[in-house]
Request: fold
Amino acid sequence: MHNLRAALLMVLAMAAFAAEDALLKALSGSIPTGQLLAVIGVAGMVVFGIWIAVGPEGLRLRTLLRPQVVIRNLCEGVCAVTFVTALATGDLSIASAILQAQPLLMTLGAALFLGEQVGWRRWLSIAVGFAGVLLIVKPGTASFEVSSIFAVIAVMTLAVRDLITRRLPPEVGSGLLSAGAFGSMGAAGLVLLILGGQSAVVPTPGQGALMAATLCFGLLGYITMVIATRIAEIAVIAPFRYSRLLFALLLAVGVFRERPDALTLTGAALIAGAGIYSMWREARLRRAHLARP
Reply:
């Protein structure tokens, strides 16, 4: 029963994140990217700051000065800027599909930098996933879009962020990390506004409502994902992370009238299939290791 509830919560989280991405793309046409990131990031940081201040975790601001946490937050900022730029300048379907390569990049990074053992099956799944990314990016062809490079940078920094998270000590709470993530997004938005020469605009009531909805969907995604990972095994709920791609494709086609070509859809299928297999294989090996006397 817990696994079913966790799976439903994970699907809800992915639907919320897909809706957040769609709203960011819609708003980026009329509001500067830096302003979007700054407003949503600061608002999210305040919400999570209040949550952890009144909860059992408590505010431990010194934790934010740990080198690992600082690097993690830098990755959050870079990821936010590059991914929202990819959404603003390219297709939602392409950016979302590339983002799904994150578990494969994590496996690669764990093998290269953390010394984790990766067998030939998972190496093969990584190769298949990267082939899927190439099918989507289409380098050297007339269909190549610079926006896809921003999405690639975003997924790389996302993988680095999660690899660092694996190494954080238990006393670094998830609430503080979430507040730091939103704060980094806000700081990155302010830097983009200043260095990018972007001029802030006064949102209309409709745009303000959409920005509030974007924040709500982002918070809903974070909270439900955290709850899902706490009440069930990662191996059970991890495949449901790829439901985000399905929701993103539906929104891309239904709202933005995108028409992903056959190569993009094939690449997305390869990435999703390889990622699901890699996570399943890793979970199976972990259970076998724990079962040994």
In short: Residues 2-291 form one domain. The radius of gyration is 19 Å. The CA atoms of residues 105 and 156 lie 7 Å apart.
